[in-house]
Amino acid sequence: MPLLPVIENSNTLSRRGFLGACAGCAACSVCPSSASAAPEEKARVRLVFTHPPKDLEGWPYVNYNYEPRKQEVLKRLTAALPGVEFLPLTVMKQEEAKALLENDADIDGYLCYMMGIPSARAARILMDAGRRVVVVDDLYGGTGEFLPTYAYARRQKLKVAGVSSARFQDVIDTTRVFAVQRKLRSSTILDVCDRRDSTLPKAITDAFGVQIRTTSSEEINAAYKSAGQAEAEKWAKTWIAGAKKVVEPKRDEIVRSGLMYVAMRQLMADTKAQAIDIDCLRMFYGKKLPAYPCLGFFQLNNDGLVGACEADLNSTISMLAMTYLTNRPGYISDPVIDTSKNQIIYAHCVAPTKMYGPNGKSNPYHIRDHSEDRKGAVVQSFMPLGEMTTTIMLSAPRKEMVIHQGRSVANIEEDRACRSKLAVEVKDVHKLLGEWDRWGWHRVTFYGDLRQTFEAFAALSGFQTVAEG
Predict the structure, then answer these.
(1) Are 69 and 115 in contact (CB under 8 A)?
(2) How far apart, in whole angstroms, are the C-alpha atoms of residue 7 and residue 84?
(3) What is the distance between the alpha carbons of residues 437 and 310, in angstroms, rounded to a whole number?
(4) Cβ–Cβ < 8 Å for 367, 347
(5) Which one, of 451, 19, 56, lies nearest residue 231 by Cα?
(6) Where does residue 76 rank: exposed (0-12), middle (13-18), buried (19+ CB within 10 A)?
(7) How much is the pLDDT for 263?
(8) Distances (CA, A) of 67 to 49, 144, 146, 180, 322
(9) Confidence band for 433, pLDDT divided at 50, 70 and 90
(10) Span 61-90, mean pLDDT?
(11) Is 334 helix (H, G, I), strand (E, B) or coil?
(12) Residue 126: which H helix or E strand, with range?
């Protein structure tokens, strides 16, 4: 079967080009998405169609014409996933599946499309060999093989994700994981921290391939001192103009936040980083930072990059991976639980206002001071209500992803604790109370019903998913 052409992305920008474009427009409200800024090396995915010979009785039925269906699947996948190079073939014998193990040296993963039964059990052969495999049931065709194969893979904790859905977008979203994993292996996190040991960065690099460059407060302070005043003034003007209200901070404080943002962006350009985290509270309290990075993080997250608080590397990799996967920002928070209302309240002094990505709508925000010390400048974001949210945390040392979901119901106005407070109603708030010591206080929240996609990412990364509520 001939391979259809892959649609190329004609809007690719280099990292320095991305940052330069943002600097040039300093007042732009929308910058290119993370997909444009990230490395664009294609993932190579072997698309394996499995089915019996055409004249054999079975599902879907004898003499079913598989070829038009294969062409349709391939055409839709290549159109939707320009970051993936698909290598299609049909497997009807076990020997053919075993040959793939010998010949596929540079394959990021396998997409096994089960189109009919009986078949050659190709997916079972590949997954038992430790390969990353997405198995898809072409409904009413491969079901008899898909159900026991996927159940077996889950029980054995293999690097396997499954799709059994009439919605083709679910196949697309799951297969996109391979492209995200390839991007992560070409990505860099800039970790600004004076106290880091090597254990956690190494665990994250081993799990995802992302490079972590740890630097010091001295380096970011040097960048701050050399940051352009005029550009910082433009960003301060942009943030003030976009705010519904500026409550406590004076303009000069917001300008200092602009200088810190320009400094962060320059360091990211110099290191070709797609994400930055800073040990902000410890450094600011210790007088090692001249300004909070909160408004800069807000801007980075709105623009499809990642700015993460408190040098929390588990949150940073969670944000980076899932931003690549969904093109939506993660909202890192210190959750509060209110059992009287069956709610969890995600509280933090950094929050995005483009919850559906750089090209989505912006929700209102106020500019406030930082809650704990009443200094600096931060965003209080009034996030969309009545929407499904998916909240996670990846733990590289544990090889686990914790997850829960809920529906946004209120933006809490309360002077205590962090400025942004999104209340979400969950299924069982009491279950959330039971295991919070296992993954730390922080969680990262994304807008949308993203559980299937996030669980696929976890499985294909060799992580176990733990549902916490």
Answers:
(1) yes
(2) 9
(3) 18
(4) no
(5) 19
(6) middle
(7) 97
(8) 10, 21, 20, 29, 35
(9) confident
(10) 97
(11) strand
(12) helix 122-128
* Average pLDDT value for the chain: 90
> What domains, with CATH codes, occur in the chain?
42-183 (3.40.50.2300), 186-467 (3.20.14)
Question: Strand 245-246 and strand 211-215: pairing?
Answer: unpaired
Longest C-alpha distance within the chain, in Å? Answer: 78
Nearest to residue 239, comparing CAs of 86, 26, 82?
Answer: 26
Model-level pTM? 0.90
29 has a pLDDT exceeding 50: no
Residue 181 predicted with pLDDT over 80: yes
Q: Give the pairing of strands 188-192 and 211-215.
A: parallel
Q: Are strands 443-447 and 331-338 parallel, antiparallel or unpaired?
A: antiparallel
Report d(CA 191, CA 198) in Å as an integer: 12
Residue 311 DSSP class: G
- Structure-derived torsion over alpha carbons of residues 262, 268, 274, 277, reported in degrees to the nearest 10: -80
Q: How confident is the model at residue 38 (pLDDT cuts 50, 70, 90)?
A: low
Report DSSP letters for 241-261, one per residue. Answer: HH-SEE-S--HHHHHHHHHHH
Q: Taking the CB of residue 467, how many other CB atoms lie within 10 A of it? A: 13
Angle at 430 between CA 425 and CA 431, to 5 degrees: 100
Shortest CA distance to 38 belongs to which of 301, 264, 323, 463?
323
Token pair 């053919």 is at which residue?
96
CB atoms inside a 10 Å sphere around CB 415: 6
367 is written with which tokens?
Answer: 């500019």
> How many angstroms separate the CA atoms of 315 and 279, rounded?
13
In this structure, are residues 175 and 81 in contact, taking their beta carbons and an 8 Å threshold? yes
